Amino acid sequence: MRRKKSAIAARQDGAMWAVWGLGLLIAAAISLLSAQVFAKTVKSELHSYTVTEVASGLKNPWGMAFLPGGDLLVTERNGGVRLIRDGKLSAPLKGAPESVQRGQGGLLDIALHPKFADNRLVYIAYSGSGDGGAGTEVARARFTGEAFEGLEVIFRAAPKTGGTAHYGGRLAFMPDGHLIITLGDRYSRMKDAQTLDNHMGKVIRIRDDGAVPADNPFVNSAGAKPEIYSYGHRNVQGLALRRESNQVWTGEFGPQGGDEVNITRPGANYGWPAITYGVDYGGGVISNKKSAPGMEQPVVYWDPSISPSGMTFYDGDKFPKWRGNLFMATLTGAHIRRLTLEGDKVIGQEQLLSGEGDRYRHVAQGPDGFLYALTDDRNGRVLRLAPAN
Prior knowledge:
Blueprint: H1 7-37, E1 39-43, E2 48-58, E3 61-66, E4 72-76, E5 81-85, E6 88-89, E7 107-112, H2 116-119, E8 121-130, E9 133-143, E10 148-156, E11 171-173, E12 179-182, E13 203-206, E14 228-230, E15 236-242, E16 247-252, E17 259-263, E18 300-302, E19 308-313, E20 326-330, E21 336-342, E22 345-352, E23 360-365, E24 371-375, E25 380-387
Antiparallel strand pairs: 1-2, 2-25, 3-4, 4-5, 5-6, 7-8, 8-9, 9-10, 11-12, 12-13, 13-14, 15-16, 16-17, 17-18, 19-20, 20-21, 21-22, 23-24, 24-25
């Protein structure tokens, strides 16, 4: 027979369950409080918006790509690719390319093939090792939903060099299906940005399998790398397609001052380091010229620097007053910068998310019409900007 509990034991059990229930209430309150901490409403010049944390715990997130259905792939500079689904962060996915994780190197941008729904191809930029050091590479693989399979390198910047800086690394597919890749001058090879026999300080255009398009601007130039689309760049980490005009816009880091946004045209020379609006670190002169015949001028530049990184044109319907604006993540500036355009001219600028203390690596428009931003931190976050009710 089971013995009846004593009155004391019954009271102890009751107290235990009361404490347990109180614990659940406290945990729920803490959870709600956490949600409120990371969801707040902000007023801007044209729209009030709510900032919500979608995910955290990312290690220096760098690039992002939205999958059909709304899931999100995010690269981490330390070599991981994570899947975010319903606010939950996966473990690093298997099959990502091996990268050199020093300085600014590691896994960089990620992009889906225009026919991803049919071929499941994902493209990843990263710093790869080889004879002479490291350089930007691009690989493609099939995404199974849980891993990458059949990894194939389709581009390697040449030559490989020492150092740990200025890899560029943004990816975007043009409407014609060709892939644009942005590169950097690797810092110590700045003069190579002005010559066509290497990939330093260049923007690249290739086919989706790595082949060279027959209409690339230097494909028939003796000694030139046929993948080159434009040259004279320093470190291009911003890339956005302006679909209404089929233009390629890029953002690049200047030295100390002289960060730029450019409309990147085939065969054009953007001047670095022969012309610049910045000076060397510490104030040394890189060039005393800000313009020269045959060299393009930026759409806009900044001095002091804001360190522009990923960027996007907004064409959604959730923020109608922002349609056609260019949004840019900034590192030194620690904000998302909104540029108002009239034709190809910048006629206004506004800082969003300033004062939060976050460096921003990328900003992109999601398929839901909201804006998403990546914070550059060892505990990096994905933030969503949605209209305030």
